[in-house]
């Protein structure tokens, strides 16, 4: 299998954490890919017309995307067991979707200030994205700690990667404030070998 990859992407990181947890990093060849919407030639558009990464090419030449479809596919192929049976599955998928929303909002803020020209940037819009992130973190803090104390699953991995991205790109904002239980969980989770092996570039 081939995985279009860049180490800074939190979406790619979820896939890499899964591969590490499954002990299957050798099953995938990493193909370096660029992601700027301003440089479509550098994107894997033959595999994903949207040009987004990660994109996975299976051994049969089938293209699979986006990251949530890739993790579902790899979980099944590798028998990783990171998507539990229902009814816990619905919790796992909802936590995964919550983490994905946090990550998407955090990436949009990053793009707003590093891709969009200076005169077109909106601080109010970025603040709106940050409020979305803060609300989601508070929801996790109040409703999801029991789930987080259970066996590792793809919801936990997605959340770990989302929080890692907040540290990576938004260290000037204090996501930890007001979320002590989540901080305690993340401090433990971030120490897993799979998370340490997939840290974004320094
Ligand atoms: C980043 O450098 O922050 C980034 C890279 C790829 C996807 C999303 C974000």
State the gist of this model.
The chain is α+β, with helices and mostly antiparallel strands and 202 residues long.
Description:
- This protein has 202 residues and is α+β, with helices and mostly antiparallel strands.
- The chain contains 8 helices and 4 strands.
- The protein folds into 2 domains: 2-78, 3-Layer(aba) Sandwich (Glutaredoxin); 88-192, Glutathione S-transferase Yfyf (Class Pi), Chain A, domain 2, CATH 1.20.1050.
- A 4-stranded mixed beta sheet has the order 2-1-3-4.
- The longest helix is centred in the middle third of the chain and has 27 residues, at 88-114.
- Bound molecules: benzoic acid.
- Residues 6, 8-9, 35, 107, 110, 169 line the site of benzoic acid.
- Total number of beta strands: 4
What is the CATH topology of the largest domain?
A: Glutathione S-transferase Yfyf (Class Pi), Chain A, domain 2
Top-tier CATH class of the largest domain: Mainly Alpha
Shape: globular
β-sheet strand percentage:
5-15%
Low-confidence stretches: none
Total DSSP helices: 8
The unique ligands bound to this protein are:
benzoic acid
The CATH level-2 architecture of the largest domain is identified as Up-down Bundle
Helices and strands, with pairings:
Layout: E1 2-5, H1 10-21, E2 29-32, E3 55-57, E4 63-64, H2 67-78, H3 88-114, H4 123-143, H5 145-148, H6 154-169, H7 180-189, H8 193-196
Parallel strand pairs: 1-2
Antiparallel strand pairs: 1-3, 3-4
Helix pairs in contact: 1-2, 1-6, 3-4, 3-6
Bound molecules: benzoic acid.
């Amino acid at each position: 299998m081939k995985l279009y990859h860049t180490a800074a992407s939190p979406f790619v990181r979820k896939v890499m954490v899964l591969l590490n947890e499954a002990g299957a990093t050798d099953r995938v060849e990493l193909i370096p890919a660029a992601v700027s919407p301003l440089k479509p030639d550098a994107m894997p558009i033959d595999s994903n017309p949207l040009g987004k990464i990660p994109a996975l090419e299976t051994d049969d030449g089938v293209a699979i995307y986006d990251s949530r479809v890739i993790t579902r596919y790899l979980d099944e192929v590798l028998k990783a067991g990171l998507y539990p049976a229902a009814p816990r599955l619905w919790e796992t998928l909802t936590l995964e979707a919550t983490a994905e929303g946090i990550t998407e909002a955090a990436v949009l803020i990053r793009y707003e200030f590093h891709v969009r020209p200076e005169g077109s940037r909106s601080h109010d819009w970025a603040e709106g994205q940050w409020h979305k992130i803060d609300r989601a973190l508070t929801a996790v803090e109040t409703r999801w700690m029991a789930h987080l104390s259970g066996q590792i699953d793809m919801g936990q991995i997605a959340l770990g990667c989302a929080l890692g991205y907040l540290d990576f790109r938004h260290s000037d904002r204090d996501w930890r404030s007001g979320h002590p239980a989540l901080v305690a969980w993340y401090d433990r989770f971030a120490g897993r070998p799979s998370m340490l092996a997939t840290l974004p570039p320094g």
